[in-house]
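Incident review: delayed structure delivery

Summary: a single-chain prediction request sat in the queue longer than the usual turnaround. Root cause was a stuck worker, restarted by the on-call engineer. No data loss occurred. The affected request and its eventual output are reproduced below so the record is complete for anyone auditing the incident later.

Affected input:
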Amino acid sequence: METINGLYKAECIRTTVFHDGPYKTLADVEFATAGWVDWYNQRRLHGSLGMISPVEFETAHYAALNREPQPYESGIEPGALHGSSLGCGGAEGLDLGEIVDCGVWAVR
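Output delivered after worker restart:
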């Protein structure tokens, strides 16, 4: 919490980036604070997000969720290689306590 307070003071109160000249009224401080909060939450670049703004990151995130499924590079869908194709005969008839190592997956 103290870090955000320090950032607020350094970036908003002690500079003239979000206001013109010295603060004369409480409304001046409130207006500058609203501008800083908007910048901080929407437009500043985040190192943890790959130096993009939260808005850009959120837009890319939802675009990825809504993207059409792409074909797999190998041309084989996950789950297509199971059973006898792995040489372990498939999972039917296995005792649930038994562990079978199929080379790629261990089936319990």
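Verification: The helical segments are 2-13, 26-43, 54-65.
Action items: add queue-age alerting; document worker restart procedure.
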